[in-house]
Backbone:
């Protein structure tokens, strides 16, 4: 029996031992689904604290409950570790490590390279390797296939290599790892066949494509599409602000068209791991082909400028009440990059926090999910408690993240000026509520006297 047939049999009868490298927002949910699929899973992560937490049955990923994690441990088929040498005993691995941008906004693939260096030490022939980390087209071949083939191995014969982009959407109650269609591209037909067989036992729908490059490009297309459309709506918000038109009402009206229109919304900036980074990966790769994507560059510029716009809007609002941002007390409502999650990656709230501080304001934040972060000075900043009487002492509140748990009417009733970047206060009465994408209107004198009292 050849290597292909042997691994195929192990996948079918669930005797294949599967490794998941990187146990974060992507890797841990994948490990859970692999265990549910009937396989023995070895989870590898270099963070000892994560491994200790997993062994104790305590999840640090919001989408995986402690109960679910403990059920996985009870199967006796989940083994978290920091030791890469366990690769020697594995039949398949999925690589789910971070792929951030460097300070120069170039792709940082060092985490993938580090994993490949460990594979060179410990991999056995006949292994299926699947990269899930978001990256530029060509990464699977350049950083994994070519490196392993330098050792004398042949893809499709001695090892099998695929790319399957992660599509995790933290906090999404409707779509998760199991029911989100999984794209997979292999370097050879045998690779695609094995990758489809394994993932077909983990998720509801597998979508095979011809090559890893197609799979890599599909992920970048998805998120660049979102980035460009969000940027367009951000630009419309800036335009409506100048023209004295309510952009939120415009979007609501346009959304009534049942065809040819898809609503996107403006905001204080873009956050998360994907949308701020993926277009830059694609733009960087395209430049290697002497192709410069104007759409991507313009969209990135507009989205990156939104925190500055929110800062300007805050200055405008404070001026209405005869206050300067210097020495004002500002409360940021919501710091996570999206509603109802604790994920702070690339959140525009982090940039606004620094901008407000730089301009002399005293800044606090409240977020029931994201409890703390480390600022640019290396200091730990913690969310304050929910205290309406304390909230009343601030000069303004800036809504960054529209968590469902916020009582917007209760917050509005405090009478504190609000800068709403998400239209979260829609339907809430109050001339002291100001939204992006709308011109700032001067309150009546009696309203100013009331708010200053």
Residues:
């Amino acid at each position: 029996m050849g290597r292909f047939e042997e691994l195929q049999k192990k996948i079918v009868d669930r005797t294949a031992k599967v490794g998941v490298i990187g146990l974060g927002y992507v890797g841990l949910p994948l490990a859970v689904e692999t265990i549910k699929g009937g396989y023995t899973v070895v989870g590898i992560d270099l963070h000892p604290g994560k491994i200790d937490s997993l062994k104790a049955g305590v999840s640090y990923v919001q989408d995986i409950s402690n109960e679910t994690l403990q059920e996985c441990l009870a199967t006796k088929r989940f083994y978290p570790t920091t030791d890469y040498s366990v690769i020697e005993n594995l039949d398949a691995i999925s690589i789910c490590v971070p792929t951030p941008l460097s300070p120069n906004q170039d792709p940082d693939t060092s985490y993938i390279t580090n994993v490949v260096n460990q594979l060179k030490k410990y991999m056995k022939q006949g292994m299926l390797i699947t990269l899930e980390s978001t990256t530029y087209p060509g990464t699977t071949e350049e950083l994994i296939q070519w490196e392993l083939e330098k050792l004398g191995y042949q893809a499709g014969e001695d090892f099998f290599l695929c790319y399957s982009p992660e599509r995790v959407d933290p906090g999404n109650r409707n779509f998760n790892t199991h029911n989100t269609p999984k794209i997979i591209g292999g370097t050879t037909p045998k690779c695609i066949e094995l990758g489809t067989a394994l993932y077909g036992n983990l998720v509801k729908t597998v979508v095979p494509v011809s090559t890893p490059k197609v799979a890599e490009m599909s992920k970048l297309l998805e998120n660049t599409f979102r980035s460009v459309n969000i940027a367009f709506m951000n630009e419309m918000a800036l335009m409506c602000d100048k023209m004295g038109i309510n952009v939120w009402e415009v979007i609501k009206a346009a959304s009534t068209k049942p065809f040819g229109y898809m609503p996107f919304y403006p905001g204080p900036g873009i956050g998360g791991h994907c949308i701020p980074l993926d277009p830059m990966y694609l733009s960087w790769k395209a430049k290697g082909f002497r192709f410069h994507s104007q759409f991507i560059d313009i969209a990135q510029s507009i989205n990156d400028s939104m925190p500055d716009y929110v800062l300007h809007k805050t200055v405008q609002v404070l001026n209405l009440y005869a206050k300067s941002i210097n020495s004002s007390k500002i409360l940021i409502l919501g710091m996570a990059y999206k509603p109802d999650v604790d994920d702070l990656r690339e959140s525009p709230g982090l940039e606004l926090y620094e901008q407000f501080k730089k301009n002399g304001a005293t800044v606090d934040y409240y977020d029931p999910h994201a409890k703390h972060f480390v600022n640019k000075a290396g200091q730990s900043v913690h969310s304050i408690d929910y205290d309406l009487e304390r909230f009343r002492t601030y000069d303004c509140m800036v809504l960054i993240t529209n968590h469902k748990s916020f009582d917007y009417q209760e917050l509005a009733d405090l009478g504190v000026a609000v800068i709403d970047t998400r239209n979260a206060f829609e339907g809430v009465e109050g001339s002291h509520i100001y939204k992006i994408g709308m011109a700032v209107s001067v309150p009546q004198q009696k309203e100013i006297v009331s708010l200053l009292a």
